[in-house]
Amino acid sequence: MVTTQGNFPEEVEQYKEELQDILNQYQEESVDGIKGFVGQLYKQEEDKKAREDLGEVLEKGIEKIDKRYGHEQSEIIDQMLGINKKEGEKEYKGEQTYQIETSYDTIKQMLDKTGPRQEETFYDLGSGYSRVLITGSLLTDAEYRGIELVKERVDESKRIRDRLGLENVEIMQGDVKELKAEELSDGDFFYMFKPFSVSTFKEFGKTMEELAERKDYTVIGGGQSNKWLKVIDTWDFLEEKGKTKDRKLGFYKASL
Ligand SMILES: C[S@@+](CC[C@H](N)C(=O)[O-])C[C@H]1O[C@@H](n2cnc3c(N)ncnc32)[C@H](O)[C@@H]1O
User: Cα separation of 39 and 240, whole Å?
Assistant: First the structure.
């Protein structure tokens, strides 16, 4: 259930009206409700213009809803994209698998700062319901890959990816502890937002150091991972490079 505050519902109505102009290019009927309208738009799956328009829809949502009314309103954007969060997911003992996600506004700030390009690959390690992958793939031309432990989240992410026709998104179910440095060797950006237990985080640092011996890359950490990147010794090969405007995410360079 999405909570509302202030004149939020009116703003949503205004937002929908503005979007109607974009949608009119694709369909005649009016939009009745937030849920599902993006899906209607994306009937034009083959059309690159549809992806650009969908990116525009998302950016407007970030500007008009998420940024203005607080990050808890990010769920409205999840609904627009059709993301259906499941309950009663299988438990994975020893790992942190609670549902908490980066707000769309913070994701946008991170993408503005990193600017992933067409030939680059961006990994979200612990990708949850794929907000980062979807946003990135709509707003940039880079390749996006997610690794996620919880099967239900992977299945839902794939469903949304296919529904929106996002060809530059790949999602794999797995445990980062089992990844080898060579499997990540196409990565230029590695994003971690409060993922993993502390012991997994520590262990995974060794894999990432091995990768740093082969190539330079950028790590982006959010929440507790941002703190851990500074204090856990297996990550001490990183050099700190700044923060997003809202100071929620930290940037680090791996260059040995
Ligand atoms: C806090 S969520 C972040 C989701 C997404 N990256 C975002 O920022 O919106 C972290 C995710 O990491 C996953 N996770 C936890 N331990 C993991 C592991 N060992 N391997 C892969 N994913 C893991 C959790 O299931 C959870 O969905």
Answer: 40
Give SS3 for 183.
helix
DSSP state of 91: P
Q: Where are the alpha helices (DSSP H) in the chain?
A: 8-24, 37-41, 48-61, 67-69, 74-81, 104-114, 131-139, 151-164, 198-214, 224-231
SS3 127: coil
Per the DSSP assignment, residues forming a β-bridge with 189 are 122, 218
Query: What is the residue-wise DSSP string for 137-176?
Result: HHH--SEEEEEES-HHHHHHHHHHHHHHT-TTEEEEE--G
Centre of ligand 1 from the C-alpha of residue 101, in Å = 9
**3-state class of 7 per DSSP?**
coil
The pair of structure tokens assigned to 146 is: 């997610």
**Is 211:181 a contact under the CB 8 Å cutoff?**
yes
Q: Please give the mean pLDDT across all residues of the chain.
A: 84
Question: Whose C-alpha lies nearest to ligand 1, atom 19?
Answer: 175
pTM: 0.87
Residues enclosing ligand 1, CB less than 6 A?
95-97, 100-102, 124, 126-128, 131-132, 147-150, 153, 175-177, 193-196, 200
Residue 223 Cα: closest atom of ligand 1:
1
- Which residue's alpha carbon is at the smallest distance from atom 13 of ligand 1? 126
- pLDDT tens track for 28-74: 343 444 434 454 454 444 456 767 777 888 888 888 778 877 777 78
Hey, whose CA ends up nearest to atom 12 of ligand 1? 126
